[in-house]
Amino acid sequence: MTSSPAAVVVSAPSKDKATDRDQEYFEQALTQHLDWFAERGRPIRFWWRDDDAVSPTPELDELIGFSERFDVPLSLAVIPKFATETLAQRLTSTHTVQVLHHGWQHKNYQDKSRGEKASEFGWRRTALEMEKELLEGKEVLQSLFAERYVPLFVPPWNRIAPRAVQLLQQQGDYGLSAFTWINHFRLPRLQSHVDIIKWKKNERFIGWNAARKRLDLQLCRRQTNASEPIGLLTHHLDHGEGCSEFLEAFFKITSAHPAAVWLSSQELLEEAKRDFSQSSGQV
Ligand SMILES: [Zn+2]
């Protein structure tokens, strides 16, 4: 009987050297930016929005873990129609999580065959339908999450028609959060700016280089407007490889740096409302 050849030892796949280098470069670039603001005594404000929560999952637990470990407030955009009691129970033990209003059931009503972009609160729906869903959604979230609920409306797919903005305005205390630099004039706003997922094909982390460039752009803009918060956008159910590593590194640097301040959506919405009421009437 012949002896079998010695087993070839294959080490577990690890991050390749290029990824390590990219991460290092990202961390250096971010730190340099923050140092620039620290030297001038102008802190940069960050906030964190995570979308599509309905029930507790291991992926959500990981984000709640980051939030508590680094003391970074987490604003969860919850879909009212599918929000569960178990999610409400899961959040009762956290001190850093708030809940935002994410549409009604995350359903698209626009016509994709005509090339229209997905939207739940878009122009194809009547005001009556949308108003009913807005009121019902608010009621559900308030009764499930009580004081954790923050009246910040996050339209699914980050798109909202002017008619729906008007409905929010009529309800009095709403702010609006989407993903754009364009600010609606009708409502106080709190935008998100850096989405860490590459959505085309299969969802995954955008990569260290893309993350560096996106943050670079936002931080350069803050050199002339340091007061506008930078919104980090995540989607815990769609995080592929690389997202956890990025979030850990990003929170590690920003939570320890004197020029970076993490704020809750509640605090920032209050501020946005004050700014809004002061500037309304001005062109
Ligand atoms: Zn969504």
From TrEMBL:
Q: Which domain of life is it from?
A: Bacteria
Q: Which Gene3D superfamilies match?
A: Glycoside hydrolase/deacetylase
Query: Could you provide one GO biological process annotation from this protein's UniProt record?
Result: carbohydrate metabolic process
Entry's InterPro entries? Answer: CE4_u4-like (IPR049591), Glyco_hydro/deAcase_b/a-brl (IPR011330)
Would you tell me the protein name for this molecule? Answer: Nodulation protein B
Organism, per UniProt? Answer: Pseudovibrio denitrificans
